[in-house]
Amino acid sequence: MYSFGLIGLGAANSLLLLRMEKEGLLEDAAGIVFDHTFKALNDKTYCFWAHPEEEIIQDLQHEIKHSWSQVVSGNKYENLKGLRYYMVESLALYKRTRVLLERYPNIKIHQQKVTDIIDHSVYLDLLTKNASYQVLKVFDSRPPVINEVIGETVWQSFQGWKVEFDKPIFKPETMRLMDFNIPQNGFTQFMYQLPTSETEALIEMTRFGRELLPEDLAKDQLRNYLLTFNESYRIHDIENGVLPMSQNAEQYHRSSKVISTGSRAGKLKPTTGYAFKNMYAHAKELVLNEAINKTTNVWYGLPSRGGGRFAYYDFLLLFIMKFRPQWGKIIFTRLFRVMPTEEVFKFLDEKSRVGWEIRMFLKLNKLKFLWSVLFSSLAFMSSKPQRWLPIVFSLLALMIDRVSPGSGTNLGIGLLILSLFVVGIPHGALDGYSHNRNLKLPTFVARYLGIMALVILLWLASPIVGLVFFLLYSAWHFGETDLIEWKRSNVGLSVLWGFMLLGIILLSHLNEVNELMNYMSIPDWPIEQNAANSVVQLFFFLSAILSFWFRSAAWGLSLIALALSTQLSLVISFGTYFILQHSLTGWNHLKNSEGWSHSSMFIKALPFTAAAIIIFLVFFQFDRTSLWQWSSYFLIFLSALSLPHIYFMSKLYKNV
Ligand SMILES: Cc1cc2nc3c(=O)[nH]c(=O)nc-3n(C[C@H](O)[C@H](O)[C@H](O)COP(=O)(O)OP(=O)(O)OC[C@H]3O[C@@H](n4cnc5c(N)ncnc54)[C@H](O)[C@@H]3O)c2cc1C
Question: Looking at ligand 1, which residue's alpha carbon is closest to its atom 29?
Fold first, then answer.
């Protein structure tokens, strides 16, 4: 059994190893490292800005190849006052890590790809093609799989040439940042000049856009660019790279024993592609938090930071890069013209003050950002209707009820029944297609119906047991779906939130719940309305604290929707949550994981949806004019449908 494992030995995990050594954590820890590539080439050049006295500069003093104190952008030359711009070649870092590993025979290196991680509650199995290895904790730096929320991912693609001129051309103290004097081709394209001597430099062409920079185009552009120097040169090395510019790159495993690092941990600033300093800081944080040598804290690894204002700025700029990439040149040129570079760096480090940011935005292309605010909000709302629809729906129902008592409720129930067939039942009906390809359809249907029959038998045998069982697995499933959506997936938290949200819905409608229970021959719940109200308040309070603690706006919005729905009837309250939040969320998870379109999902689901409705109408005999009877039978039917659905969705979420 290894006490820790590293998946990948690129920048992030190399920095982590260096930090672990610095803090003396490698002495007697049994570790295992996997990377299928043998890092013998300089595949990347990491640049970053820092103050010379910062720890990173001391720690990497032997790996830093060069640094600059003067920056040119456009026609502006600026001496960086406190900061310098640094360059580290990846090979230097890899070599240092290799030398480090040679000193610690207790850490084994395997030149293999990790194919899967299996979570056993106490330890993890790391699977490779031919073997499995048991570890207590894993730092995973595999490249993230990105599920873009709006449109397609924007990529930062580049090609860098290490060139040597015959005559002195450069000032080794001066680097050129974002030189837009090249054709834009409908993208944001620019050159970097990073001279390491008077004759040598890394000249890099970068593109921000949904399409990658074609190698031949990059070569042509670099050749043309170098022609402007009017001197002969030789190319010593070529570096190619592609980075996702996405706010959806952060990935974390459901097990808190698996900690993402590097790009996978969202350490790559989506609008710039800079990650090196963030990864260095993350390594320090992980070691400081003793995530490495302590027993794992189940909360550890859950992001406790939500977006914040810098994430919103990134969101706006990324939206422009996605849909108006040709604006990049104007925006960046203006940014570096009107604001001192050092202050821009501080802003990119997310350390600027609000006042400075307002001044900056006022000096930038306001209309372009206002366009982004408007259209990105609309795009976000249409991509995440589950965040705002429950609030708008409940508000409208309440307002209509205020004007014409009962009308809002009736209209609301009608719309919910309609959406039950459009998304509620279909979101479960897709189980047959998605995560179940290894089962033949008849076997799948038989298994699904079998589980449903068992649930109905349980209700028949004992309605109370049926109800308790239903509430338990619904709480688990609702909580799991929401927390995966809010990127805070955790078993304990899922169950807690699931119970609280169901508690809020049911206890705030205790009279109606008891009436429904009577139809199902279940005695009244043993709690008075006053006590139930106090529990509801407690659940709101605890949930609000959790949403603040995890800085989750989506969680907060969900609480607002629940609070509004406590003022409406039970059917609307549960229906709003179940259809407009839960089912829409599950639907989007399936859409993203399978890459389907909404219409194809609906069509795929149609036969299963129809079958579900027929089963309900044929097998469940009830008074169709009574909403209570309908509701009670529907609850049983829903509980029967839910269990196999939850089982299959959980399988899907295991891979999240
Ligand atoms: C060309 C290039 C230049 C960049 N320049 C800068 C820069 O100037 N400044 C900056 O701040 N950032 C820069 N970045 C961004 C960022 O710093 C790098 O992408 C950095 O390498 C990210 O570190 P990482 O550990 O997440 O990924 P990597 O360094 O790519 O390491 C991941 C490692 O995991 C291994 N791996 C993948 N899958 C498996 C598997 N299944 N099993 C085992 N091993 C696996 C890979 O072989 C790789 O070695 C650059 C990126 C690129 C691509």
Answer: 10
Number of H helices, E strands in the chain: 23, 18
Residue of the nearest CA to atom 20 in ligand 1?
11
Q: Is 284 strand, coil or helix?
A: helix
Q: Where are the domains of the chain?
A: 4-38+50-62+87-147+249-296, 154-245, 308-381, 384-653
**Does 3.30.70 match the CATH number of domain 154-245?**
yes
Cβ–ligand 1 contact at 239 (below 6 Å):
yes
Which atom of ligand 1 is closest in space to residue 275's alpha carbon?
11
Pocket test for ligand 1, best of 94, 132, 268, 349 (most atoms within 8 A of CB): 268
Q: Are 126 and 133 in contact (CB under 8 A)?
A: yes
Q: What is the pTM of this model?
A: 0.81
d(CA 199, CA 166): 7
Q: Domain 4-38+50-62+87-147+249-296 is classified in which CATH homologous superfamily?
A: FAD/NAD(P)-binding domain (3.50.50.60)
**Fold agreement (4-38+50-62+87-147+249-296, 154-245):** no
Q: Of 359, 356, 343, give the one whose Cα is nearest residue 81.
A: 343
Distance 209 CA to ligand 1 centre (A): 20
The ligand 1 atom nearest the CA atom of 274: 11
Low-confidence ranges of the chain (pLDDT < 70): 290-307, 432, 434-439, 622, 624, 652, 654-656
